[in-house]
Amino acid sequence: MKSFTRLPAYQLATTEVKRYIEQHQLKGGDPLPSEAVLCQELGMSRASLREGLKSLESLGIIRTRHGEGVFVAHFSFDPILHNLPYSIAAQGSSLRELLQVRCALEVGMISQVVANIGPSDIDELSDLAQQMLQCSERGESFAELDRAFHATLFRCLDNTFLLSLVDLFWQVFNRLSDRLPVPDAVAQRATAQDHLAVAQMVQSGDVQALERAHRHHFNEISRRLDTMYAPVARPH
Questions:
Q1: pLDDT in tens, 12-69
Q2: Could you tell me which residues are beta bridge partners of residue 44?
Q3: Which of 28, 89, 130, 197 could pair with 74 as two cysteines, CB 3.0-4.6 Å apart?
């Protein structure tokens, strides 16, 4: 005889509320019915519903506005980022795997970028890369400039989901790399120069050269990760 594990009431509530949202084709910003109506519609207690709604809000699926009610949340990767386990930051493999996926995504979109990017975005890329180089020469961090560079590179594709995904990868990688040793001046300058090379390839319109420059940028980061995580030889 098979044994079945009964789900907690609040988990059943989260499933039923998500099903309700899907069945009624609710979108970001649309209101949910009152608690009383939902309890009647879904056949559950108010206590179970409230626990379910709290869980859905922590996942970024709904938003509660005090005095107004409960609304379907607009799509965002923020809950994923906020719930990122800090424990994986200690694993070099996590960073390498994330870098591999990020490289595949960004390099894969290069041809479309070249076909669609305009002069103003190209000028902004060059300016951001120059600022990064200047920061490296002063020994300053340029994390936000790097973030803006990648956002500007793909902005011309007018793909909100892609921009959110690129930014998510950047934020996750940046968070994980916070626990790594601070890059030295040589590494900082090399990173800035990589971005400058990418900006120059965008301006030239050479897709293959740009793909190589972009891939080289990620390969250099991977190489530095390998150095950071290389096993230390113990003296005999």
A1: 899 999 999 999 999 999 999 999 999 999 999 999 999 999 989 888 889 999 889 9
A2: none
A3: 28
Q: Are 136 and 187 in contact (CB under 8 A)?
A: no
**Pick from 154, 151, 155: which is nearest to 167 by CA?**
151
How crowded is residue 81: how many other Cβ atoms within 10 Å of its Cβ? 13
- The alpha carbon dihedral of 6, 12, 8, 39 has a sign of negative
* Residue 220, amino acid: E
Q: What are phi and psi of 85, to 5 degrees?
A: -65, 125
- Tens of pLDDT, residue by residue over 181-227, are 556 778 788 889 989 988 988 988 989 998 888 888 788 777 777 76
Task: Print the SS3 string covering the chain.
Answer: CCCCCCCCHHHHHHHHHHHHHHHCCCCCCCECCCHHHHHHHHCCCHHHHHHHHHHHHHCCCEEEECCCEEEECCCCCHHHHHCCCHHHHHCHHHHHHHHHHHHHHHHHCHHHHHHHCCHHHHHHHHHHHHHHHHHHHCCCCCHHHHHHHHHHHHHCCCCHHHHHHHHHHHHHHHHHHCCCCCCCHHHHHHHHHHHHHHHHHHHHCCHHHHHHHHHHHHHHHHHHHHHHCCCCCCCC
Per-residue pLDDT reduced to its tens digit, 119-145 = 999 999 999 999 999 999 998 889 899
CA 180/CA 183 separation, integer angstroms: 8
